[in-house]
Amino acid sequence: MSDPTLQPLIETAIAVTEHAYIPYSHYPVGAALRATDGTIYSGCNVENAAYPATICAERTALVKAVSEGQREFDTIVVVTKNAGSPCGTCRQMLYEFAPHLRVVLADLDGNVRSDTTLADLLPDGFGPDRLPR
Ligand code: THU
């Protein structure tokens, strides 16, 4: 791998899939979000019998981090069995805090399948700067 700083993120994302609550989809997702101070926040998907109430792994990690006082992030690693890409809601939530975020997608064996940016995944996103203060 060209970037050794990704390894702890990949390992964190894989490890947290252990806690994914997925009685309906059986599709574990693990996320590891790195704040600019280097702290890593993990998140898994947490499903609900009322399906739309489900929270994705990326948003779990983001909300954990923000609730701990973090607001600046540089990288997120997301792992799934088939290196699935973040959903639209997660892209939007991440864009609020980190429009220039690096987004790395890997499989459950840690193989990186995509190394892109949120700007590529959500072009012309709607951010806080659009709203008058
Ligand atoms: N899921 C995520 O955790 N992140 C995404 O960006 C896409 C979907 C979860 C939600 C649900 O638990 C399962 O994957 C199937 O949709």
What key attributes describe this structure?
single chain; 133 residues; alpha+beta; Cytidine Deaminase, domain 2; 4 helices; 27% helix; globular; binds tetrahydrodeoxyuridine
How do the helices and strands line up, and which of them pair or pack?
Blueprint: H1 6-16, E1 30-35, E2 40-44, H2 57-67, E3 73-79, H3 88-97, E4 102-106, E5 112-117, H4 118-121
Parallel strand pairs: 3-4
Antiparallel strand pairs: 1-2, 1-3, 4-5
Bound molecules: tetrahydrodeoxyuridine.
How many helices? The count is: 4
Q: How are helices and strands ordered from N to C? A: HEEHEHEEH
Backbone shape: globular
Strand order in space, largest sheet: 2-1-3-4-5
* Biggest sheet overview: 5 strands, mixed
By CATH's scheme, which homologous superfamily applies?
A: Cytidine Deaminase, domain 2
Name the average pLDDT.
97
Distance between the termini: 43 Å
User: What top-tier CATH class fits best?
Assistant: Alpha Beta
Bound ligand species? tetrahydrodeoxyuridine
CATH topology-level name: Cytidine Deaminase, domain 2
Q: Tell me the total number of β-strands.
A: 5
Helix content: 25-40%
Report on the structure:
The protein has 133 residues and is an alpha+beta fold. It has one domain (6-125): Cytidine Deaminase, domain 2 (3-Layer(aba) Sandwich), CATH 3.40.140. It is 27% helix and 22% strand. Strands 2-1-3-4-5 form a five-stranded mixed beta sheet. 36% of the residues are buried. Bound molecules: tetrahydrodeoxyuridine (THU). Tetrahydrodeoxyuridine is lined by residues 22, 25, 27, 29, 45, 47, 54, 56-58, 84, 86-87, 90.
